Amino acid sequence: RKLLQDAFGWVEKRGLVFYSVCSLFAEEGRERVREWAHGHGSAVRIVEEIELGPHQDPSTDGFYGAILEKT
Q1: Residue 17: enclosing H or E segment and its boundaries?
Q2: Are 64 and 28 in contact (CB under 8 A)?
């Protein structure tokens, strides 16, 4: 959460932040981003999310990424 908060402190309105983790655990990726964005109401918008697992690409153990916009 602090990482997201710090990153958003550096970007201006309409700026983008890319958050990624090498994990498919929802509490480290999807849930963390959605909970954090929800806590900031209309100040943050999730632009896009991607999840990649070994069933899609055997060269990876797992990946989650999200593009967030400061609105």
Answers
A1: strand 16-21
A2: yes
| 12's tokens | 């201006």
Residue positions counted in the chain: 71
Mean pLDDT of 9-25: 94
User: Across the beta sheet with 44-52, what order do the strands follow?
Assistant: 16-21, 63-70, 44-52
The string of pLDDT tens digits covering residues 19-62 is 999 998 999 999 999 999 999 999 999 999 999 988 888 888 89
CA 65 to chain CA centroid, Å, is 5
Q: Extract the tokens encoding 56.
A: 């899609």
Residue 33: strand, helix, or coil: helix
d(CA 18, CA 66): 6
Report the pLDDT value the prediction gives residue 28, as an integer from 0 to 100.
93
